[in-house]
């Protein structure tokens, strides 16, 4: 679900690097506040029309309305909106990032299992069993936090169908739920099973030392701490009074601006014998009884008020989205992807060679000796909300070989002619056409040649063409060896076949250079 956009900002060297982000709809400010903005503009326009064409018929009502508008406009700054909203959003963003860093990842446990409990047969089955229980514990935690996971695994039977739980393990969980009256989370139970299984492996001599045993136990304990902390975020929220205060402050402020930012046309009066006489609007030396600032211009569209609404309501919308990152908003965590990734990746980490002997003491793994599928099953309701996997910034980045050519000394622009070669970072696919290399003896001075001792290798793999199993010959030219006149240009790889090097030519050229 999280909207990834930094791939559109590879550099800040261009003017308006963020401008292209303004057209992104999903997760954007326009999508977040357009309903509120439309409602605000409609209310503002309705009040303006009613004032201009309705209240103008009754001078007393018109004057009272103008005085209310002036009063609201003068006192709107008593609401410290920037301070209240800014501090609140800061706390929400900090809490949002804290929840992401608290998500449990079984990678460390999986790598430790493979390192400290190696081998085929029973060790492998123990590794797969423990890592499945670790993933089960994470999912039991996320079922209490995420609407996505709650829809995907609404009951424990769905966990059994997904291969995360066996029937015998389900009975154990049901018994624990009955014991606790379903008052407390039981995410720790599968982790405890894992601890017991590792202790049995230690007693059986499958774990080499107490230090290794402690490392594996600590890995399981770290997952328990992560899951416990994550549930703590769901339990302990930002104080409700603060959330209510911010919501009231923002909405009251803009309700005030509906009247305080109206452009008024109060009736003009002139004093005469202690009384006020109504005069035409453009009469000089006149006053208005509402206390309105006569220097304000009359505009039908309150541009700066709309801008202020977008900024403050957009700010509030950030807090509304990030305060619960396990929901269905565009910027919420894609928890479905996380559990799918963790489940298969952890199995890949602990998996070993095939052909292990079976052991009747351990219950068969729910996936046998096979790697789980790329995704776990969805319910119909859960599949409606399934999102595509996240996109990394460089997945669709394409580079040309022209940009990858190495720069050695003062290389002439005709040094390399590499065209139409493109490399995709994600697929690592190559295409190479019309390769030509030109080497000239003017490219480096004598001192630079003597200083550099490395060799210029035109890689064998670089001459390969996608779809072909053959590769061209490799060119190796020692930079410490000067180029003779007949080496001035090598236009193609095939020209090497007829190329010979006579050291005497180099000695003659050197002597001529000294004489000059």
Topology:
Elements: H1 29-53, H2 59-75, H3 81-102, H4 107-116, H5 122-143, H6 147-152, H7 156-161, H8 167-180, H9 188-203, H10 210-235, H11 240-260, E1 268-272, E2 275-279, H12 303-322, H13 335-350, H14 380-383, E3 398-400, H15 401-404, E4 416-424, E5 430-437, H16 446-451, E6 455-458, E7 475-478, H17 503-515
Antiparallel strand pairs: 1-2, 3-4, 4-5, 6-7
Helix pairs in contact: 1-12, 2-11, 3-11, 3-12, 4-10, 4-13, 5-9, 5-10, 5-13, 9-10, 11-12
In round numbers, the mean pLDDT is 77
Give the strand order of the largest sheet, numbering strands 1, 2, ... along the chain.
3-4-5
Q: Can you write the helix and strand succession as a string?
A: HHHHHHHHHHHEEHHHEHEEHEEH
Shape: elongated
- Tell me the major beta sheet: 3 strands, antiparallel
Beta strand %: 5-15%
Overall radius of gyration: 37 Å
Low-pLDDT runs of 5+ residues are 354-358, 411-501
Class computed from helices, strands and strand pairing: mainly alpha
Count of DSSP helices?
17
N- to C-terminal distance = 71 Å
What's the number of extended β-strand segments? 7
Helix content bin: 40-55%
List keywords for this structure.
516 residues; mainly alpha; three-stranded antiparallel β-sheet; two-stranded antiparallel ribbon; 7% strand
